[in-house]
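Support request, please re-run this one:
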Amino acid sequence: MSRLSDERISNLSHKILDSLIAKHLVDPTRRGEILALLKNGFAAFEQSNEALDNEVREKIDSLSRKVPEGSEEWKILYAKYREELLKRQKPGTIKKQGG
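Re-run finished. Output below.
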């Protein structure tokens, strides 16, 4: 699973903020506050994805027979389990790792 670097998160946050300001959807005097909210949102999204990835991998590892990571079967199981876990999560919630 690819992870967004801090630099990429910052770049995306600035682009989104600039777009929102250009469309007069946010107050430009609150730039710092809005930028922090965007960056925190990306960080929370990354944390949620990492926790989901760990949970899916644990589920695959717990199978009675070992499925080699990267194999076609592993990829199919990963997609299936990930989808199942996503369906169980409540919209708008973030399941934190280890809790």
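The CA atoms of residues 57 and 63 lie 10 Å apart. Helices lie at 6-22, 31-61, 72-88.
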